[in-house]
Automatic annotation (TrEMBL):
This is Odorant-receptor-47. It comes from Grapholita molesta (Oriental fruit moth). Pfam families: 7tm_6. The keyword Transmembrane helix applies. It is found in: Cell membrane.
Amino acid sequence: MGIVERNVNVSLRVSLTALKLFGFWAPAGLGRRRGLLYRCYGFLSFMFLLGTYLIIQVVDLFLIWGDVALMTGTAFVLFTNLAQTTKIAAVVAHAPALRRLVRGADELLAAETGPGKLIVDSCNQETKREQILYFCLTTVTVAGWAGSAEKNQLPLRAWYPYDTSVSPAYELTYLHQVGALFAAAYLNVGKDTLVTTLIAQARCRLRLAALRLASLTDELTPNAQVTRGTRARCWPSAATGHVN
């Protein structure tokens, strides 16, 4: 049971490993006790990344109720976090079905050789480039957001049960906001690219099916005698004597 998830597709490997490290993709073979501990770890991870933000933003929304300008900014971030919470809940709730989908595609694509392997590698490169671009855009956006705060002001407006303008409360809160947002943003990239990569793998399997259909009669030549082996590969029902 390693830390890094094994998969023929690099993007899936990165996405699933990130979900596993943050407690949202349980490793295979966990017993009852370890499974419970892993779920507790996932809950603590969620509270660090999003749960705390949801609580303090809801409280702040009530405190600034009536100020449309402030409410708009707080509500925008709040609903963004709610959307990401929904994504995490969907991944955890549908983990068994996702595992079957990922495992089935991995076994099929990893077994490809020759021209089929070239199609699999092409799909791998496409999804990898997409994920790298997404990570770069996320890094630039979050770094710009983290550096936009004025002196003794937090990047994200929220309510805290203590004075965040004094040291060291300000520094610790600032580190939590920036660290949690970086982690949550990268995790969001992992969840989104997980979906897009599964779609890309479905397209890859269609291309493999098209390749097999195109090469079905490669061994046949005009006016050549059809051998029994070729007949069996091309028309299985005719070779066995069963016609639907």
